[in-house]
Design goal:
The structure holds two protein chains of two kinds. Chain A has one domain (4-81): ACP-like (Non-ribosomal Peptide Synthetase Peptidyl Carrier Protein, Chain A, Orthogonal Bundle). Chain A is 50% helix and 0% strand. Chain A has helices spanning 4-15, 39-53, 68-81. Chain A is globular and about 35 Å long. By secondary structure, chain B is α/β, with parallel strands linked by helices. Chain B folds into two domains: 7-47 and 296-389, Aspartate Aminotransferase, domain 1; 60-294, Aspartate Aminotransferase, domain 2. Chain B is built from 14 helices and 14 strands. In chain B, the strands form three sheets. Chain B has a seven-stranded mixed sheet with strand order 4-10-9-8-7-5-6, sandwiched between helices. The longest helix of chain B is centred in the last third of the chain and has 19 residues, at 297-315. The radius of gyration of chain B is 21 Å and the shape is globular. Classes of the chains: A mainly alpha, B alpha/beta.
């Protein structure tokens, strides 16, 4: 089982290339208001995360994800479930 | 966030369109001249942005059937299919479609959107899983959402990605529905349905739903769509489609061999709580289905036109969808480039659909052209000339 910290660090690593240049990505970074993610960019991130962790992320959880922390928490749940 | 704040981005896009003189979402057809021509703001336009694939909207037999139905059955049913809105013509159309598809059962819905909403929201529920192609139509997403089932998206037209996601589901496979389309509405590309059906067979227990909205009457020797074209009709559990494209009316259907389809009528809220289609619509659709079945030359003419325009636009250097199709998407990275060309086409007497993100799959802006069997070769050349002249 991967720890929250390991998953968080990998999520931040995957978010960074999708963020506007020079924008800091932290645990409490809001994907939409801080990084200006649109639906296309969110789906791009989801696909990368799915490949990296070999999981499928249900679309149903996306409305509950605002921050990098939210995504990490959900991901840990999905990985744990698998 | 205040209640109307969420609309500010839409307001900004609308302002940008207006500043560029674009009225693409407010085009009003003042008069229809034929299946392929209309008068807009006093200007005669060739319609190259419809879904009128077989050009049947002005077919004299369809019009006569619709007029006769209005005279004998009235203008509307004023009720649901499960109340006072099932006329013998609705039932007959279901029989016609069942025979056409070689399926045991068919349900007719009032629109194609409602067909997806009604079927998908009812077929699955909490605890079930939808695995859908990422480029599926909004009605598929909405139907899946309404079901309460888990929704997993696989990469567009990627059977290997679908396979991987089905594998991850393990023991949940018997509660899984795969949903794809025959032809995708934005880029006009076909599903690799033979490969998708093979993946489905490998994961025994999963169900396959194919939305043939844009492929009915367009693909297959008999016009039954992508599943017929790919030779995998037996692998498809539910065929969903619409009357608002090749059949030139409005409405939707689902065909299946599963006996449980009849039970959907009693459980599907979008089916139950919608008035049934007007008798005139049912009558023209029945006639159009007969024409679709008996006049394969319409399909050949459609494809001749599709190849003619696709080749012309490709030779002009436009960035197009991946394959020739009755839907030909001209792609632009900058929406302003799409704006100016859309206006330029109107000035040259050609109407196409302007499609902007997020309605497009990859964030590009599209001039979505569509051709019809009703277009003459001269009209296709006029459309090509207008693009050449931009």
């Amino acid at each position: 089982m991967q720890t929250y910290e390991t998953i968080l660090s990998l999520v931040i690593e995957l978010v960074k290339p999708l963020a506007p240049p020079g924008r800091e990505v932290r645990e409490d970074t809001d994907l939409v208001s801080d990084l200006e993610f649109d639906s296309l960019r969110v789906m791009n991130l989801v696909e990368q995360v799915e490949d990296r962790f070999d999981v499928s992320v249900p679309l149903n959880i996306l409305p509950d994800i605002r921050t990098v922390r939210d995504f990490t928490v959900q991901l840990q749940r999905i990985i744990g479930g698998n | 966030m205040a209640i109307f704040d969420k609309f500010q981005q839409l307001a900004a896009t609308r302002r940008a369109l207006a500043e560029n003189g674009i009225q693409s979402i407010n085009v009003v057809m003042d008069r229809m001249v034929s299946a392929t021509e209309a008068i807009v703001n006093g200007r005669s336009l060739i319609l190259a942005g419809t879904n009128n694939y077989l050009g049947l909207t002005f077919n004299p037999e369809c019009i006569e059937a619709a007029c006769d139905a209005v005279r004998t059955l009235g203008t509307g049913t004023t009720g649901s299919r499960v109340a006072n809105g099932s006329y013998s013509a609705h039932v007959q159309l279901e029989h016609d479609l069942a025979e056409f598809f070689g399926r045991r059962r068919v349900i007719v819905f009032s629109t194609g959107y409602v067909a997806n909403l009604g079927m998908l929201s009812t077929l699955a529920g909490p605890g079930d899983v939808f695995v859908i192609d990422g480029d599926c139509h909004a009605s598929i997403y909405d139907g899946c959402r309404l079901s309460g089932a888990e929704i997993i998206r696989f990469r567009h037209n990627d059977p290997a990605d679908l396979d991987k996601r089905l594998r991850r589901l393990g023991g949940r496979i018997e509660n899984t529905l795969i949903v794809v389309e025959g032809i995708y509405s934005m880029f006009g590309d076909r599903a690799p349905l033979a490969e998708i059906a093979a993946v489905k067979r490998r994961h025994s227990g999963a169900f396959l739903v194919v939305d043939e909205a844009h492929s009915l009457g367009v693909l297959g020797t008999h016009g039954r769509g992508m599943a017929e074209e790919a030779g995998v009709e037996r692998d498809v559990d539910f065929v969903i489609g619409t009357f608002s494209k090749s059949l030139g009316a409005i409405g939707g259907y689902c065909a299946s061999d599963h006996p449980e389809l009849d039970l959907i009528r009693y459980a599907s809220r979008p089916y139950i709580f919608t008035a049934s289609s007007s008798p005139s619509i049912i009558a023209s659709t029945r006639k159009a289905l007969g024409i679709l079945s008996s006049q394969p030359h319409l399909r050949r003419r459609l494809w001749d036109n599709a190849h003619r325009l696709y080749t012309r636009l490709r030779d002009l250097g436009y960035h197009l969808g991946p394959e020739p199709s009755p839907i030909i998407a001209v792609r632009f990275d900058q929406r302003e480039h799409a704006f100016t060309r859309w206006s330029g086409l109107i000035e040259r007497g050609v109407y196409v659909n302007l499609v902007l993100p997020p309605a497009t799959p990859d964030g590009s802006s599209l001039l979505r052209c569509s051709v019809s069997a009703g277009h003459t070769p001269e009209q296709i050349d006029t459309i090509g000339n207008a693009f050449a002249d931009l």
